[in-house]
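Table S7 (text form). Paired inputs.
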Amino acid sequence: MTDDPGNRLLATLDSEDFMWLESQLERVDLPKGKVLVEEGEVLRDTYLFGGGTLLGSGALRH
């Protein structure tokens, strides 16, 4: 990840918070049309789009 996360939500974080969160994120390449969660399933991961890239994270712990 770069200093410009390509995501307006992430861009609002101060540097310290962004650096912590960045260490928890993982770039994920998904094919077009990929279903992230089926109806009725428990959402276990967080997905953020950043500059055309999907950033995925499991449960975040601070």
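Next pair, protein 2 of 2.
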Amino acid sequence: MTALEWSETGDGPPVVLLHGLGGDAGFWTAGAARWAAEFRVLTVDLPGSGSSPVPDGPATIEGFADAVRDVLDVAGVARTHVVGFSMGGLVAQALATGHPGRVDRLVLASTYAVMNPQARMFLDAVRDVVVAGGTLRPVFPLVCPWLFSVDFLADPANAAWLTAPEDDEPTAGWLAQYRAQQAFDGRDRLVDIAAPTLVVRGAEDRLVTAEDTAMLSRGIPDARAVTVEGAGHLVDVEAPDRFARLGLVESYTAYTGRMRPLPDWLHEGAVVAVQGGTDRARARLDALVAADVPLAALWIQDWVGERTTPAGRQLWWDWQLDTTLYPGWPALLGELAARRGARMLVYVNPFLADQPGHDQLYREALANGYLVRSASGAPVAIPNAGVRRRARRSLQPGGADLDQGHPHPAADRRPRWPVDGGSGPARRAAGVPAGGLARGGRDAGRRRRRGPPRAGPGRRLIRTRPARPPRWPLAAAPGCARRGRPGRT
């Protein structure tokens, strides 16, 4: 077994980075530095690269995977996330199928299950030049156009990436790796990959086709594919920030969920909460304009109006605009946009009121089977401050149930709501009850029982913004076209 050279940096959940054909651990220098704040990052010289020796005898991708497993043993890592680029993606697949207990999350970037004819023809030609006595340095200019997008090649700022290295590399390692890559065919084993998998491809990749990516995402159970627009084969070089987010952060939080990135406009000013009606909202806007405060949005929390309960005043959960409290709503939206270039955000939570006069959406959800139901099949009603509320599943087409992140095929339409956000505190407080069932008979109360940690002796409980994206319909009216949502601390 070939012993591999490896290094590590950072602290946190472990992640192993596997480079491509002819590369080495240095390929990941920028990425490793970026991820070290959140992960314990292990970079490996695969057999024949960097300081790792060329394997004795025929090289195989499965043998490379075994050597990576040995690195995990030496590093004391029982289970790790794995990011494999190009040939490293083949090694990652072999590690996931040959040693499934060692792989937690899997990211396959710019790779395939079996080499396509175009990539094979190109790399065969490179191999023939090397075998005929050529070295990798003069071959470099022939390879570069296949690795990058046209825009990247045309940008003078990227000249360093397009210059051949001063020291010519030995060809024996490259040839051993290519023979292993050429012989690999993982198509029949894709179904055996149990780790949650993200497949990443640059839209301008000339070596890995969209069909290659589709083969991986269809063959690996529950895999997800992402295309990075404008990037070529070296997607992590051309789009390092996007790749870092896609490849690790989203993969690591695939189970727990993660709020979608906030839109750029939300960073242009303050988000100011307002309650009390149109006049109060306009007065707040006047004050902000007079003080020349940069404003991204007003956040109207009581747009649906209020009701009186034994616990005091609460919002109506019918999620329809209260035109008595907010008369002239369209004019207010237009004034907000005209005076400050800002937007209007509103509040919503995943429950529906069933009181007469405020039950339009409840009746629609009931008729279409969108409500969480009990074991008897009846909708689940949750008493809250003297009134009942009904828990609903997502009405967003292709959206997720409250308890599962899987598409809901029955959700074929959505109500026209002037909303596009939600309240993290309301969602945390308004738990789905034990005994409620969502799609497929799953226990809808499971998320409620998976609550936050409790403060105890010597522990301080800090509440932060929720990391999970909203699990309810998101539809916007003019002025409410918001992606993401403000949270409360």
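The longest strand covers residues 103-109.
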